[in-house]
Amino acid sequence: LAVQLAFTMFLLSKKELLTSLASGFSMQFLWLHVAGAMMGQVMALCAAIVSLLYLFEQRLLKQKRLKALRSSVAIPALDLLARIHMVCLWTGFWFLTLTLGSGMIFNSGTLTSSNYLMIGKIVWAFGIWSFYLSLLIARKVFAITMGSLAKLSLLGFCFLSVAFYGFLFTH
Length: 171
Hints:
Layout: H1 2-13, H2 15-21, H3 27-62, H4 66-72, H5 78-107, H6 116-140, H7 146-170
Helix pairs in contact: 3-5, 3-7, 5-6, 6-7
């Protein structure tokens, strides 16, 4: 994440890149897009970390080894980890929604059929957004277990990480 943040700040510091990206469009949508993307990824990272903690603690609990670990390390209870995880998922989902919306506004009128790499990135981003939406719906409507949600959340973070590296190939 630190490398991603540094690379993004480097790209944004290049005035000629910014002017070519934002010709005719308001720069506020670019900054909104970048900030939303970064916050969405930070929240997805937090959800992934909480997922790992949840799965680790759940495994220790099933093996009846949690008591020994709790005496030396303060691990939050499973229900607290589940609540934190849901807050991270919902917050990250809204930031991803903001990112998609601002990206559509920022790119309106600039996409052509010859820019297939950018179109591919948009399709991938919409797919990730749909994946996170399906996770939230599955938890709320179909009541999937928190263990399954944690595993799928880790998978979603991997998908989201790949989306950033797609940016490198579109510019």
